[in-house]
Amino acid sequence: MPLPAPPILGASLHVTGSGKVTQKRLPWPGVLSTEMAPPCRSTMRLATANPIPVPG
């Protein structure tokens, strides 16, 4: 019998042979980031002076 669709957008369910259920969900939009409005000039200056290196 197929599992019902997960009730949350971006969620998935996995049931193992032993009956253990694993559920994965995406975080709510905006939870992992915050927005500063208006941007602070000193913050922008520090971010420009100390950029985060990108692997490449």
Main attributes?
single chain, 56 residues, alpha+beta, two-stranded antiparallel sheet, 1 helix, 16% helix, elongated
Question: What are the SSEs and their pairings?
Answer:
Elements lengths: L11 E4 L5 E4 L16 H9 L7
Antiparallel strand pairs: 1-2
Give the biggest sheet. 2 strands, antiparallel
Amino-to-carboxy terminus distance = 47 Å
| Sequence of strands across the biggest β-sheet | 1-2
Give the count of helical stretches: 1
Arithmetic mean pLDDT: 66
* Uncertain ranges: none
Q: What spatial form do the alpha-carbon principal axes imply?
A: elongated
Which value, in Å, is the CA radius of gyration?
21 Å
**Percent of residues in helices:** 10-25%
Q: Which structural class do the helices and strands define?
A: alpha+beta
Tally of strands: 2
- Give the topology string: H per helix, E per strand: EEH
Query: What portion of residues belong to β-strands?
Result: 5-15%
